[in-house]
Amino acid sequence: MNNFQMLEYAAWGISVLLGLYMLIDLIKTNRAYSEDVLTSSKEGEIEEALVIDPDHQGGHR
Amino acid sequence: MSQTTVVHGEKISLLRVLGPAHIWALGVGIVLVGEYMGWNFAVGKGGAIAALIACWFAGLLYTCVAMIDSEVTSTVAAAGGQYAQAKHIVGPVMAFNVGLYLVFAYTMLEAANAITLGYLVQTVGSMAGFENVHDKPFIVLTIMFLAWLNYRGVYATLTFNLVLTAIAFVAIIILFAWVRPWSTEMLKHSDLLNGLPYGFIGVIASLHFGLWYYLGIEGTCQAAEEVRSPARSLPLGTMSGIITLLLAATMTWYVCTGLMPWEYLGQAITPLFDAARLTDSKLLMVLLFVGTMFSTMASANGCINDASRAWFSMGRDRYLPTWFGAVHPKNRTPFRSIVFLVPVALIFAYFAPLDQVITFSILSGLLGYTYMSFNVIMFRKKWPLDRIKRGYIHPFHPLPALVLLLLCSVTYFAVFLGYGTQLVAMMLFFAVASIWFHFHRYRFVRRGDQFSMQWPRPVGY
Fold first, then answer.
1. Which residues contact A27 (CB under 8 A, 6 or more apart)?
2. Is the ipTM of this complex over 0.85?
3. pLDDT digit string (tens) for B376-430?
């Protein structure tokens, strides 16, 4: 096995891990919150006061 | 801890964290890859001069798109962009179609970018002397990594795009300065330009690929619900974006046509990288290779962002199953739409040929631009300037809308010349989808709930 083949296997491995991360998180989130909460977003309603989980800022602090 | 009910007034929404620079990065990021590769096929269709005419022709088309989009979107600050505009201004069937155009255009473009990135890595592997190198692992990695980034949060995603796009744009400027455009020392336009080898039909044929210089700039308004000051940031980001692209397109054409004969340029895979190779500067070669990789990645990244917002918006309005209208409570992203579109992009990137994927993306975009032309005329008619306050008012109305419609018609003909079957197939698909929506899906839509804008009643209603 040459270095490039190792790189290819690494790419496959990371892809599977990232896919699993999203899938598991999606299932956990679906179970942890009710459908009403998850789909409560309304077009135009974007005030911070309405938002739950204020500690989490989507990558922004 | 598990939460199963809605506490009084508690809602989850997309996060309003973006500024004008992110909007610029979203718009230019999606498009700049067209300068690094793709635009030059216009040279193959009609020669270098035809490609320049196509560059300016498409530039005019997209300037109209940017101006129209800036005005309408400064009043419809909602995720989904043109979909939300169509819903409020034209009607549900048009909105459903526009939503599909957007998802198709961006998902296909994402797949095309992933294919290109895989090809670039494969080429590096081959040049380094490795045998049996494959592109597929890197195609899949590109899609999975960028989907994960989008899943985690919009601020990090578009800041990443800002860095990639800025580096890719600066690389073009450095190349332009390096070849000393004020002298004929390196650039040999007088020897290399040969008029119009295929006449004016060549100019029309080259329009198909002329769109590549700017395709996707209209994606800026998908971020309308996540930008801090939409009425100001969206027009600012979009208009500065189209100016950036007009400059980048002209510089790219000037450098490449002054260094390479049109016969080679017309079929080159990576024209800007090839231009850097001709300068004999290793530094420039590295810089332009990095620019090529970054622009491709930025484009795919922005496409995931935009396609997922359009899909999410349609789910939220029940145009699609409401399951897609969910927002992640921690990451504050449309997580189900992002995950759902991953296999769609993977299937196209893995199995479909690049030119077909690109053509479907261009056709979907073109259908969207056609809609924009009559959308803005209806908008001005139903809600004149004195009835709704706009963040930006585009000049010379209705001239830009009419010019846009005319340019779209000519471009349809150009696409028909090369990809007539795909054009007809796509029209049939959207016709069938419209029938399905009208007779089946629309009964699930809560008609009053979908109109959220606090607009006055339209004139004549």
1. none
2. yes
3. 999 999 999 988 888 889 998 999 999 999 988 988 888 888 888 988 999 999 9
Provide φ and ψ at B300, rounded to 5°.
-60, -40
H or E segment at B297? Answer: helix B282-316
Kindly tell me if the per-residue pLDDT of B165 is higher than 80: yes
Domain ranges of chain B: 20-444
Burial string for B158-186 (b: 16+ CB within 10 Å, else e) reads: bbbbbebbbbbbebbebbbebbeeeeeee
Cβ-based contacts of A39 with chain B (< 8 Å): 316, 322-323, 325-327
Contacts of A35 in chain B (CB under 8 A): 326
Supply the pTM of this predicted model.
0.90
Window 110-129 of B: residues touching A by CB (8 A cutoff) are 125, 128
- From the CA of B67, how many Å to the nearest CA of chain A? 23
Q: Which of B140, B155, B342 sits opposite A58 (nearest CB)?
A: B155
SS3 annotation, B382-422? HCCCCCCCCCCCCCCCCHHHHHHHHHHHHHHHHHHHHHHHH
| CATH assignment, B20-444 | 1.20.1740.10
Chain B residues with beta carbon closer than 8 angstroms to that of A14: 141, 144-145
φ, ψ of residue A30 to 5 degrees: the values are: -60, -35
- Do A58 and B9 make contact, defined as CB atoms within 8 angstroms? no
- Token pair recorded at residue B340: 């759902």
